[in-house]
Structures are given as structure tokens and as C-alpha cells.
Specification:
GO terms for molecular function: ABC-type oligopeptide transporter activity; ATP binding; ATP hydrolysis activity. The protein is built from 18 helices and ten strands. It is α/β, with parallel strands linked by helices. Among the domains are: 250 residues, ABC transporter type 1, transmembrane domain (ABC transporter transmembrane region fold); 86 residues, 3-Layer(aba) Sandwich (Rossmann fold), CATH 3.40.50.
């Protein structure tokens, strides 16, 4: 994925049309009203200037007041309409912006749900593009619709006033049109430079946001204060802000000079038109009304031309962000999905990894190198090894967050790439090492493990009891309905000190386990360091329960504490991306190799500290 430095001008109409389509689906009535107001705002000034000439010439020519009443009343009504139009337009714009923003963000997050794996989300360039797409999705499409209709308004006004100038003096009309060419060319040049600048500073913006998050987040607060990191992070944040501001200042300087030159050119054209009008009036070839119309036309062409250039500039800038939005919304799935995927039936024989090689990128080292592994149905397979051995990577392959670089992972003999990934994942229960702590109620935090059980309090309670967290959750101020956060309050809760609760790390670990237990009807249970946040005694008791729960179930267990996996049917030792040893605990101890050495080392440590192994 490569980031664009600019959006080609030829692509802007496509982006404008896409934004208008979103607006038509999100708020058709509002958009229709917006179009009517836009046309009125473009036509009104031209008609008003023409009526004003009629009234002025009539007064100068001594016509009866009654004869001028109709154009005067029409002019007054037109003035009233033009006075009301901005307020109506602002109201419609606000409604359209909100409606379009909701629909656009919904489409963006629908597109995100089509991302099957997680590899693309770990790409920094993708994160930059996603941040810009989110920024655009909230207001960009609505702003593009406004830019499109604003351009129509300016074009209508310019066409009308150019027609007026052409009737008075064709050369003035041609001169006014010729001045619009350099203005548009200059704005295109500025937009390209601005687009390149925005892409250059996108990395700085991401790093600035990261340091700002570190300075204000609860998770970093303890280390920030204990280690005195506030000054370091603040300095780095300011460095990124200063660098981005310097880039923006250089771009602002370019815009200043270009706009000043364009303003001077416009002033010269206006001055030439006025000089010609004065000379024609002195010669008796123009009436007073003609002069008023000429002045209005010159000012109108300048205003419409400036508006057209500004709208084009705004459209080009918004199109840059909208380009990221459309790129993500229209993107194909990151992992291949067959047009007619095979059904992922209940696991009957087992899962097999056949000569699996994997690395996270073409320029990255191999994490797995020719792994052959069978996970039989109804049995527990434990994966052990030092950090970086490839254990968690294997879990990602089993969940099809990635595809093997070489080799295959099969479900009852069928390659995972031939199956529907949604169906496969629905047959797996998993506790990740980096599980989520949601700012939901306690019941919802467990219920997300199986949405069909979200309202089934009996199943939620049973899962919590298995995980050893039921009593703690039941004792909360509002029981299972207690919010597990102190951040999400409404006005009714703001004064209630018992509204939100923060759990300890070990308690959150048990909540994550309860989510997995809620999926106990699934075919495969994966537990990646399921008790890493528990003290040894709590870990020992929980593993006793896990042993009962795993009986006759297909499960994969990862743990650094070898004593907790000694009863697994097969223990697989990974090192440097390959399988070094495999067998039961007794077999591996008898082999007296790496596993036996690590087990004795841990057992000696537990004996010295009095912990259970």
C-alpha cells in the first residue's frame, strides 16, 4: 500500500458524485431542498442586479412611480429571499452533514468488518490511511456535497454575470473569464503541494497522538509518574507538533504569495472595467442603470470566480481525505475468500498443520519453519516454548487471522482457505493473551463471548462460576449490571459513586475466561496464557477447573508455567519456529531434553518460593 501525494483533478468529479450519492441515500429530502436553495442563491443576484438597473433607469428617465412598482416589489421580495437563503442553507447543511456522516461511517465500519485478518491492521501505513478515512467519513462526504453544490451556485452566478458583461462589452466578459484560468491553475498547484504536505506530516500526527495518549491515559499513568516520563513524552509530542507546524507554515507562505498575486490581477480587471464604464457613460453610450449593472456584474464575476476557486480548493482538499475513505470502503478482503466457500462442519477428526512456514512480511524473518502438527479431536494439545518461539503465531493461523506463507492448516482435512472464516471462528472459543476489557456492564463483558447468550443470565452466571468470578461480580453495587468503568456516566449516574467499578487484572482475566466458557459448545477451545494475571494459588485452582472443562474437548493450551499443562494429552515444544519435541509429560521427562530441563528449573523455583507448580 502506498500513500498518494495528491488526488488527480480527474478523480475529483468521481469523488463528488460518490459523496452526492451518499447524501441522496442518507437524506434525500434535505438534499433536494439544498439543491433548490443553491439554485436560488446562484440565480438571485443576477436577477436582482438586472431589476435594479430597470428601477434606476426608470427613475432617471422620469417614469411614473406606478410603472416601477412591480419591479421594485419584485426586487424587495428577491432581497428578502436572498437574506433568508443563508439561514436556510445553514440549517439544511447541518442536517445533511449529520445524516451523511452517520451513513458514511456505517459504510466505513462495514468495510472494516470485511477485513478478515489482522495483518493489514498492523501496517502503519494502513493505520494512517484509516485515521484519515475516519476523519473524512464524519464530515468529508457532507463537505464534498456542499462543495459540489457551492460550485454549481458559483457557476450559475458566474454564467449569469458573464452574460451581462457580454451584452455590455464582449471584451470585458472574455477578460473576466481569462482571469479565472490562472486562478484555477494556481489553486491546483497549491492543492497538490498541500496534499503532499498532509501525507508527509501524517506520520508526525500519528506519533503526536500516541504521545498525547500516553500523557493522558490511565494505563500509562503509573509508569509515567513513577519513572518521571511526562517531560520526555511532552518533549517528543511538541517536537512532532513543531515539525508539522513548520511544514504547514511553509505551505501557508506559498498560499499567501499566490493569493496576493491573484487578488492584484482581479483588481486590475475590475479597474479596467470601471474605467471603460466611466468613459462610455461620459460619451452617452451607457445609462446610469447600465453602470450599476456593470459594477454588479464585475463584482459578481469576481465573487463567483473566487467562490468557484475556493470551492474547488475545498473539494480538492476534502477529496484527498475522501480518497482514503473510498480506498478502504471499496477495498477487497485482505485474505482470499472463495466465491462459494465450503461449510465448516463440526470438528470430527481434528486440525492439522502441514509443512507450515510463516513470516509477517517478505522482508521479515521466518517465525514458523516447516511446522507439522496434528491437534486430534477430543484431546488437549499444549504448546510450550520461549518467547518468540511461534506459539501465539500458531494461534493466529488457527483462527485464520493470517494465512500460512507456505503449507496449509486443515479442519477435518479441508484447507481453512476453502472454508467460510466466519463459520470457522464461530466454532472456536478463545482467550487471547492480550484480551479486551470492554467499558460495558459485567454481564455484557461476558456476553460478548456469545451474542446469542447476551440476555441469558443463567448461561452468563454459569460461565462466570466456571471462571471463578461469579461471587466478585454478584457483589458489585449493581451486580452483573454494574458498569466496569468509571468513564461512561450519564447525568443520572454522575452523582452516584457506585455506578462504575474498575476490576483488578486478575479479575479481568477471569472475565475473559468466562467469555470462552460461554462458548463451551464450540468445537475448539484455545487458551493462550489464560492465567497469566493470576497468583499461583488462584492459577492452580483455576487449572483444576479447566482440566474438568477440557475433558473430551478439542483444546489448545499455551502456558509458560509447565506445571499447568503437564496433564495435556500431547505437549509440543517449539523453538526457533520448529517443533523440537512432542509427547506426553512423562515421555518428555524421560527424554531428558529441553522440556525436562525447563520443568525442573521451574519446579526448583516453585519449591524455593513455596508456590505450587
Amino acid at each position: 500500500m502506498t500513500g498518494p501525494t495528491a488526488v488527480p483533478a480527474r478523480r475529483i468529479p468521481g469523488h463528488l458524485w460518490a459523496a452526492v450519492r451518499i447524501g441522496a441515500h442518507a437524506a434525500p429530502g434535505v438534499l433536494a431542498g439544498y439543491v433548490v436553495v443553491t439554485v436560488a442563491a446562484g440565480v438571485g443576484p443576477v436577477v436582482a442586479a438586472t431589476l435594479l438597473r430597470t428601477v434606476i433607469d426608470g427613475l432617471a428617465g422620469g417614469r411614473e412611480a406606478a410603472a416601477l412598482l412591480a419591479p421594485a416589489l419584485l426586487l424587495a421580495c428577491l432581497g428578502l429571499m436572498l437574506g433568508v437563503v443563508p439561514a436556510v442553507r445553514g440549517y439544511l447543511y447541518g442536517r445533511m452533514l449529520r445524516a451523511v456522516g452517520v451513513r458514511a461511517m456505517d459504510r466505513l465500519y462495514q468495510a472494516m468488518s470485511r477485513i478478515i485478518g489482522i495483518g493489514v491492521m498492523e501496517n502503519p501505513e494502513f493505520r494512517d490511511r484509516l485515521r484519515m478515512a475516519q476523519q473524512s467519513g464524519r464530515s468529508g462526504p457532507g463537505q464534498l456535497v456542499d462543495d459540489a453544490l457551492g460550485s454549481v451556485e458559483s457557476a450559475i452566478m458566474m454564467s449569469g454575470f458573464v452574460g451581462v458583461l457580454f451584452a455590455l462589452n464582449p471584451w470585458l466578459a472574455l477578460l473576466a473569464l481569462a482571469a479565472a484560468g490562472p486562478a484555477l491553475a494556481a489553486q491546483l498547484w497549491l492543492n497538490r503541494r498541500n496534499a503532499r504536505m498532509l501525507w508527509r506530516v501524517s506520520g508526525r500526527a500519528r506519533r503526536e497522538a500516541h504521545y498525547a495518549e500516553l500523557l493522558t491515559s490511565l494505563s500509562a499513568a503509573k509508569e509515567l509518574r513513577m519513572l518521571g516520563l511526562g517531560g520526555l513524552f511532552r518533549t517528543r509530542m511538541l517536537r512532532e507538533m513543531t515539525g508539522a507546524n513548520a511544514e504547514q507554515a511553509r505551505q501557508d507562505g506559498r498560499e499567501l504569495w499566490v493569493r496576493a498575486l491573484l487578488a492584484a490581477l482581479t483588481a486590475v480587471i475590475a479597474g479596467a472595467g470601471l474605467i471603460w464604464a466611466v468613459r462610455q457613460a461620459a460619451a452617452g453610450r451607457l445609462s446610469i442603470g447600465d453602470i450599476s449593472l456593470l459594477v454588479a456584474a464585475v463584482a459578481g464575476v469576481q465573487s463567483a470566480g473566487s467562490g468557484l476557486v475556493d470551492r474547488f480548493a475545498s473539494a480538492h482538499e476534502n477529496a484527498l481525505l475522501f480518497d482514503h475513505y473510498r480506498t478502504l470502503v471499496d477495498a477487497e478482503p485482505d485474505l482470499p475468500v472463495p466465491a462459494n466457500p465450503l461449510p465448516a462442519g463440526p470438528l470430527q477428526r481434528g486440525i492439522e498443520l502441514r509443512d507450515v512456514w510463516f513470516r509477517y512480511g517478505p522482508d521479515k524473518p521466518w517465525v514458523l519453519r516447516g511446522v507439522d502438527l496434528t491437534i486430534p479431536h477430543g484431546r488437549t494439545t499444549a504448546l510450550v516454548g520461549l518467547n518468540g518461539a511461534g506459539k501465539s503465531t500458531l494461534v493466529k493461523l488457527l483462527c485464520r487471522f493470517y494465512d500460512p506463507t507456505r503449507g496449509s492448516v486443515t479442519w477435518d482435512g479441508q484447507d481453512l482457505r476453502d472454508l467460510d472464516p466466519v463459520e470457522v471462528r464461530d466454532r472456536i472459543g478463545v482467550v487471547f493473551q492480550d484480551f479486551m476489557a470492554y467499558e460495558f456492564t459485567a454481564a455484557e463483558n461476558i456476553g460478548v463471548g456469545d451474542l446469542s447468550a447476551m440476555q441469558d443470565r443463567e448461561r452468563l452466571t454459569a460461565a462466570a462460576e466456571r471462571a471463578g468470578i461469579h461471587q466478585a461480580l454478584a457483589a458489585l453495587p449493581s451486580g452483573y449490571d454494574t458498569m466496569l468503568t468509571n468513564a461512561w456516566y450519564d447525568d443520572a449516574d454522575r452523582e452516584d459513586e457506585q455506578t462504575g467499578v474498575l476490576l483488578s487484572g486478575g479479575q479481568w482475566q477471569r472475565v475473559a475466561l468466562a467469555r470462552a466458557f460461554l462458548r463451551d459448545r464450540r468445537d475448539l477451545l484455545i487458551l493462550d496464557e489464560p492465567t497469566a494475571g493470576l497468583d499461583p494459588e488462584a492459577e492452580y485452582e483455576l487449572h483444576r477447573g479447566l482440566r474438568r472443562h477440557r475433558q473430551d474437548r478439542t483444546s489448545v493450551l499455551i502456558s509458560h508455567r509447565l506445571g499447568t499443562i503437564r496433564d495435556a494429552d500431547e505437549i509440543v515444544v517449539l523453538a526457533d519456529g520448529v517443533v523440537r519435541e512432542r509427547g506426553s509429560h512423562d515421555d518428555l521427562m524421560a527424554a531428558d531434553a529441553g522440556y525436562a530441563r525447563l520443568f525442573r528449573m521451574q519446579a526448583d523455583g516453585y519449591a524455593a518460593t513455596g508456590e505450587r507448580g
